Amino acid sequence: MNTMTPLSEIMTIDLITVSADTKISEIKTIFDTNRIHHIPVVKYRQLLGIISKTDLLHYIKGVVGQRKDNVELNKDLLENYCAEDIMTTGIAKLASTERIAVAIEVFKENLFHAIPIVDGNLLTGIVTTYDIIAFAAKCQCAASTITDHADTK
């Protein structure tokens, strides 16, 4: 794997985002119906924060889970709280021109699995640990194919 490859080569650009006033119930639906683990919170494509699936689960277990006696209250908590109430702010972000090696270092030093990609103050993508693993696997497969073809000659 070439860790000097720019993040623009591996980042996800087709993002699902929410605004700061998106209800928790809608965020839960997004996580339940999509194979994603992070949702950037934006205002006019400017990054405000990020919500991980873990953030949502901690909210549901911590706040809603304590109120098992009242189903209506649980529903109200999901409807009356918004993304800004559970999002993480002050997050690490990188430019699309940064190299994979930089993202790997950020992941190694921190306990998160997604880095928003911001160019000129606008969210342009996201890189996850999965993206890096998938890229490494693709490179490994390509290298194996080249080696296999060389061995048959």
Structure description:
With 153 residues, the protein is of the alpha+beta class. It has a single domain (7-151), classed as CBS-domain (Roll). It is built from six helices and four strands. The chain has helices spanning 24-33, 53-64, 71-80, 83-86, 100-109, 129-151, and strands at residues 38-43, 46-52, 114-119, 122-128. It has a two-stranded antiparallel ribbon with strand order 1-2. A hairpin with a 2-residue loop joins strand 3 (114-119) and strand 4 (122-128). It starts with 23 loop residues before the first helix and ends with a helix. Mean pLDDT is 87; it is low at 146-150.
Instruction: Give me the side-by-side strand order of the main sheet.
Output: 1-2
Query: How many structurally independent domains?
Result: 1
What is the makeup of the main sheet?
2 strands, antiparallel
- Arithmetic mean pLDDT: 87
Which shape, going by the Cα principal axes? elongated
CATH C-level: Alpha Beta
Helix content: 40-55%
